[in-house]
Amino acid sequence: MAGVELLDIVKRFKNETVLEGVTLTVAEGETLVLFGPSGAGKTVLLRLIAGVVEPDGGTVRLDGRDMRDVPPELRNIGMAFQNFALFPHMNAFDNIASPLAARRKTAERVSEGVERVARLLKIDQVLTHRPRALSNGQKQRTALARALAASPSLLLLDDPLRNVDAKLRFEMRLELPRLLAAEGATTLYVTQDYKEAMALADRIAVMFRGRIAQLGSPAEVYLSPASLEIARLFGDPAINVLDVTPEQDSQGPFVRLSRLRAPIDPGLHHAVGKDCSLGLRPEAIRFVGGETTGAIPVTIEAETPLNEKIVTLVTTARGREILVSRPSGEPGPAQGQAHIAVDSAHALLFDRRTGLRIEPSRDDADVRGAAA
Amino acid sequence: MEHTSTAERILRGIAIGAVVLFFIFPIFWILLMSFQTNETILRNPPSIAFVPTISNYVALLTGRLETAAGTLDISFMQNLKNSVILSVSSVAVALLLGVPAAYAFARHRFRGSEDIAFTLLSFRFAPPLLIVLPLALYFQDVGLADTYIGLIWVYQLICLPLILWIVRGYFEDIPADVEYAYRIAGHSWFATFRKIALPLAGPGIAAAGLLAFIFAWNNFVFALVLGSADKQPVTVGALAFVTASGIQFGQIAAAIVLSIAPTLALAIYAQRYLVEGLSLGAVKG
Fold first, then answer.
1. pLDDT grade for A105, boundaries at 50, 70 and 90
2. CATH topology of domain B76-283
3. Quick one: residue A130, left, alpha or beta (phi over 0 = left, psi -120 to 50 = alpha)?
């Protein structure tokens, strides 16, 4: 039985359609990350599931039950909000206790429950503080504790790490998967941070403009993004995009990079002649000596050391800007002229008009035919 | 702000002093007048030196006014009681009706909600006499004329829009997420209204209540037209001091002091809630 089923959800505000036909199933115990830019409809979708916003069309089912006309208080959901939404006139204890109190637990059971999640989230020493007296990190943990307190069967986490500092975000990114696994609840997690999405998700649903653009495991979304738009959002520094038109010769399909022949996946022969965009991850480009075959001469423009890696901005002879990333400690040229080699065979190819990725055809006959 | 020079501080002190003097002086002067007889008040040139007398207060409290033309009965204490009854009940009724209505207008956009809210506000635009005169005829027919209930009802024209619009703003300032969070935690909408919306809008409700009370207390026209002597508040009752033998300035001053005392006390008492309300901006975040 599925934890959450969304069928063809439509939501409009005034004349603006924020969700158009979202269909999604989240298995029991699964952590699904809703990822996308702001305005994609992620938060609205969570609110629809929580029952505080009504859909204009479609069905929300929780544990197989249609949630139409079921008020939020009867859905057994825990939710953490991006801006925490703590009750400002109650101390942290009462904030966390509110879901337990609502379930008519005895005072003893309530304080047991609060202690449990407070210890888990390391806020047991600030339970008497009001939200105003809490640091952002403590507020965020209190909000999370409140969502977890009553061990709900479904957890909705709306970008809970958005408003906390980088150090805490990093800590929580490590801590959360363990926490969610321990709770065993079905989880929907909204974020705009691709690292968070990759770290937490069993599956990622990428949303754009009220639709789900791609649904898959973190590896699938990263390695085979459905569109250029998605590819641009996953990866830091962002993927390099070069306008190309694939050509073909006796050795198979290729693209021209600075007039040099760069072979692409033989399965991409059907893209030959189309206006395409080539997506090259900065990690797939490296500096080489000038004598290497296929090396592209470039001019180094700027270098940014980012602790664990060094990102270099280079321009090709035709003035195209390319980002090259290499691990820190690996030597590389800092200025002047240099050469790069591109792992073009694993590059992603997108249709420039639609932005959709062109899948390599895996039909053997096709590939052989193209090679011949 | 910390780096203010001495000259700046002195100038600021003078400016604040001038403003305070401007606003406090009439009240101070009335307070002085209330302890003087008509003769000392009206002497020319006026002087701040006089022998204080409490005869004005005695006259008000005993209800007997000694004038040059003879003794006159005045019902000031009855008026004061009426003022309290009318203002307190009107504000209570207005809060009871207005606060839930304000919540509905703040949180639920239903068909025509803006129009209804605006219509209620527009009661404040209409000249009171225009409403009260025809109303007087109806009240005669239905037996509401010269009753507390009738007056309290009409006072809603003053109190209800005020409370509705001020409190609505305070409800709108509460982030909807805070209320959503409480409902998702498992509480009904009514519990959410009581435990989240009401406490968080509390300072605003207090401020609106206070303001409505002051407006109700100072109302003149409604009671003048719709009430007889034994239902009239101090504002109307003060007319009695304009007697055949002249205006009793001393008693008027004493009456003013007595009648502003409750509102003043209430305002001073409520002040800390109002300040708290302003500093409770921590609702966000």
1. confident
2. MetI-like fold (1.10.3720)
3. beta
Q: In chain B, what are the domain boundaries?
A: 6-73, 76-283
Q: What is the CATH number of domain A2-225?
A: 3.40.50.300
Test mutation, A43, A79, A164, chain B, max B CBs within 10 A: A79
Query: Residue B74 above 50 pLDDT?
Result: yes
Give the nearest partner residue to B181 out of A76, A85, A89, using CB atoms: A85
Minimum CA–CA partner of B185 in chain A: A99
Q: What is the pLDDT of residue B2?
A: 58
Q: What is the CA radius of gyration of chain B?
A: 24
Q: Which of B184, B188, B282 sits opposite A79 (nearest CB)?
A: B184
Q: Report the C-alpha gap between B97 and B51 in whole angstroms.
A: 51
DSSP assignment of B7-63 = HHHHHHHHHHHHHHHHHHHHHHHHHHHHTS-HHHHH-SS--S------HHHHHHHHT
A133 touches chain B (CB under 8 A): no
What is the CATH number assigned to the segment(s) A233-371? 2.40.50.140
Surface-to-core class of residue A274, CB atoms within 10 Å of its CB (0-12 exposed, 13-18 middle, 19+ buried): middle
A102, B185: Cβ pair inside 8 Å? yes
Chain A residue numbers with beta carbons less than 8 Å from the beta carbon of B186 are: 73-74, 76, 98-99, 102-103, 150
Spatial CA neighbour of B233 closest among B58, B90, B86: B86
Q: In whole angstroms, what is the distance from residue A9 CA to residue A24 CA? A: 9
- Domain chopping of chain A, boundaries: 2-225, 233-371
User: pTM score, two decimals?
Assistant: 0.78
Q: Per residue in A126-177, pLDDT tens?
A: 888 898 888 888 888 899 899 988 888 899 999 888 877 788 788 888 888 8
| Contact state of B187 with A86 under an 8 Å Cβ cutoff | no
Q: B178: nearest CA in chain A?
A: A85
Q: Is A81 on the interface with B (CB under 8 A)?
A: yes
Q: Which residues of A touch B191 (CB under 8 A)?
A: 102
Task: State mean pLDDT over A46-65.
Answer: 90
- Is the pLDDT at A347 greater than 70? The verdict is yes
For residue B68, name the pLDDT band (cuts at 50, 70, 90): low
- Going by pLDDT thresholds of 50, 70 and 90, the confidence category of residue B276 is low
- Note whether B200 contacts A89, CB cutoff 8 Å: yes
Nearest to A73 among B186, B196, B199 (CB): B186
Q: What pLDDT band is residue A367 in, cutting at 50, 70 and 90? A: very low
Phi, psi (rounded to 5 degrees) for B154 = -65, -35
Q: Please report residues of B whose CB lies closer than 8 A to that of A87.
A: 178, 181-182, 196
Q: Supply the pLDDT for residue A137.
A: 85
Nearest-Cα residue of chain B relative to residue A143: B181
Inter-residue contact A52 to A85 (CB < 8 Å): no
